[in-house]
Amino acid sequence: MSIVENVIRVRRQYDPSEEGTVLHGLPPAAYTSSEFFEREQQTVFSDGWTFAGFAHELKDPGACMPVDVAGRPLLLMKNENSEIRVFHNVCRHRGLKLVNECCTVKGSICCPYHAWSYDLNGQLEAAPHFGGFRVQEVAGFTKADHGLVPVRSAVWHDWVFVNLSGKAADFSEYSKSFAKHAGLIDLDNLQVIGKIDLGVVKCNWKFLMENFIEPYHVPVVHHDTASGQPLRDHYTIIDGVCLGSGVDLEKKKDTTAKSSYLDMSARYLTMFPNFVMGIYLPDQAGVHLNIPISPSETHQYRVLYSIGDQNYTEEDKKRLCDLWYAVHKQDHAITERLQEGRTSPVNTDGGLMSPHWENSAHEFQSRVLTAMAD
What we know:
alpha+beta, 2 domains, 10 helices, Rieske Iron-sulfur Protein, seven-stranded antiparallel sheet, four-stranded antiparallel sheet, globular, Naphthalene 1,2-dioxygenase Alpha Subunit, Chain A, domain 1, 374 residues, single chain
């Protein structure tokens, strides 16, 4: 029996018999096994719509951004019509990774190995000397057939999604449940405040997702920053690919609660597998990009948005970025200890999960296993 099959078997063994009973998490191998991680890359991150990057970073025609999705090098590129397209970031000649860092090209992308060049729509423009000195023609070779290989993609507001396998439903259908919950704010009117590179977190990508989805940890881990969001006011969200939690506070503040900057109504929303949005009413939002590197490492970024033009000064923007960096580091300290705990033989049954506070995180785990089983 493979590690993946065994994880699924253990999970099914502890499936709740009725609603409201105790839940179990995933066994340690789901967070530590290279075999399990590779299977996730081939299924979870390939068969659905995976968040790949931020559209606002591709400002002008010719802008190129290399990204990794499911362990594969991809290239986000804006063409002359200001359309963002996605391609496999690989030259069709010898398979060289074409673009190594963000750049803006003038007219075409030139391979640094043998100077094959591609236009901004991925078409092969030139294959210098391929058939001899100053000769490009070779029997059985046609430039039109050897352009960059496109990847199915969708741009939704400021976010670029890819579907590597081509199997997923149309993006508008796939994202419908998430769009419904995120629609409480004007997504067309988001203004970028800043981007935070949170670095490599030493934990499995699922821990970052699960931690964001469930509200149970908030009064403990964020007892200073989120004391204005009492646990009793939180609830979980399970709606198709949209999983998370929310808190609705009365306009009159709870005078018994310690004041904090998170003393507003909020939504903590995810779209399976890796899109994360925090909405902080009435004026802010944040989107995380989690990029799995290995079973025990994830690179995380966050972009902060104002809802409408809030006229933030540069000092205001820096202060907000520093504030959210500190909040994330609180979560990172916890998720890294979760990763360390998975080296122990304890909790081989996946540990316990609250049916009230952690049911949305449990559903996220189930979706991971369903994608892998299929």
